[in-house]
Amino acid sequence: MPALWIAHVTVTDADAYGRYAKLAGPAIEKHGGHFIARAGRFVQLEGKERPRNVVAKFPSVEAAEECYNSPEYQEALSHARGAAERELLIVETTE
């Protein structure tokens, strides 16, 4: 089953987070993911609002997890640590 990688982000260091974003996109694509929402308009209905929301679709939960744990994504993530407050989850879809 396909899976969605959903990130809610507040960027605190735009330069460092820009380095993360430059590396994260190719890592996600390498593992079969593609962006379906990226920093677009949103309406916060409940919970903590984060100004940046990203959704990527992967072929499976396992593919998304493999991406997260890959050397390529971990290198990207090294730039995001300390440069953003984030929540990230993977959820399996029903289609």
Automatic annotation (TrEMBL):
SUPFAM superfamilies attached to this UniProt entry: Dimeric alpha+beta barrel
Gene3D superfamilies: 3.30.70.100
Pfam families for the chain: DUF1330
Ranges in a coiled coil: none
Domain DUF1330 stretches: 2-93
Name of the molecule in the record: Uncharacterized protein (DUF1330 family)
